[in-house]
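note to self: dont lose this again. the chain is below, predicted strucutre after it. 544 aa total, dont forget to put it in the shared folder this time
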Amino acid sequence: MHERAGTPATESDLIDVEALVRAYYEKKPDVTDATQRVVFGTSGHRGSAFTTSFNEDHILAVTQAIVDYRTAQGITGPLFIGADTHGLSAPAQTTALDVLAGNKVRVLADRFDDYVPTPALSHAILTWNNDLARRAEGEADGIVITPSHNPPQDGGIKYNPPHGGPADSDATGWIAARANELIAGGLREVNQAEPSGVETYDFRGEYVDDLANIIDFDAIRTSGIRIGADPLGGASVHYWDAIRDRYDLDLTVVNERVDPAWSFMTLDWDGKIRMDPSSPSAMASVLANASGFDILTGNDADADRHGIVTPDGGLMNPNHYLAVAIEYLFTHRPNWRSDAAIGKTLVSSSMIDRVADSLGRRLWEVPVGFKWFVPGLVDGSVGFGGEESAGASFLRFDGTVWTTDKDGILLCLLASEIRAVTGKSPSELYRSLVERFGDPAYERTDAAATPAQKTALGRLTADAIAATELAGEPITAKLSHAPGNDAAIGGVKVQTQDAWFAARPSGTEDVYKIYAESFKGPDHLSKVQAEAKVVVTEALGSAG
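---
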């Protein structure tokens, strides 16, 4: 933990936004340098103009690659585009629009030239494609320009195909390879034109009006609870006012500032400015307002993540809130399919497993990445999909799809519905889960690894794990593929009756991530973490 974690940012912590934008246009990437290539992770291509990893050439190439991809896939409808409040997002959107115009792609941008949260863009794609008359004009897809909760110097761009969620690895791999090919070729195959007459779409109005079909606003309004919302300077900033006015709520936007340097933030655990609503350090200034509200929430820059603050519990651990949300939803949504499953990523808390079992619902455990939930949310076979990093979405009252990308605004509103309907805060309800199922200790740590070791870990199979015990308990499962969909984990997970760990290589640093949990308390968790490193090291050695 950095010594200044949780303290207000000072002038020395802030980026020079003008210099960042200059670097976006002036620096030219060298794709023979791995750090300057287009690389799509779980949430698109991200980087910084300062390090020549997110610059104009990258966006020119990525956008042209997306055009080429959609052409190859026969996608002929409009492309929705939106951006968050990061300093690089507006320049990148301008660049993308030039390329889309040059390729004569029909584009729908925000009607009010406003920021567009990721869930609003996903909602727009699905709204179009679920309307038979509109769909007859061609399926829609979208681009959202955001590095999510990443620091102010970062930029990001991701592609959402017609299903509305994050593109799968086949699509992103193709797009990244094509983009690097275009850069290497001097961008000669990139088409550009001055965008004129771009069509518009009311992202905010369409999204906010439709919320009545997924959240019980009557219960919230009647209860009279006091709600606070902090957009953390992100794309949801004008959505919260609209929600308050549309549904007549006692809702206060506690911070309406938008500043691409994020000078009003408190520093995250590592001393960096990062808009992570699940981090107590990043949310320190928000937490100071907790006593004034029954429910206080935060969102990251593109509003795909949520942070839930209660007067009695402070900032909730994301795993804790997911467990509460799941139990509430599956007991308060009678029109969902009786066989609708509970979706979780395999590094999310096993408290969710126990809740699912108590509800008699099937648990659908998938690898890290929200893209895995898309098919189940689309057809209603998965009622809720959530991941430990404070991202989730769920179905409408009638059991049909809402968004296929994470929706932080929705999960924040659900906390108010839970408080209004049950009369208890989500943190109170989590304590009741602990009384029933036990109190798990959960933590994510990092362990050093060379690039070769990271590659080997990503390809490791369960058979390579020779251990039969973990922290004094017999191992009950060794996984290299997720039990929900048999997709490769990109690492391994080892389980016992009361504990588990999962190890996955980092995509950006020379470390691997160890996620671990124990229902036997913090001391046992420490043993699990220590033995996890030994188990992984031995497995890597046996794998050659």
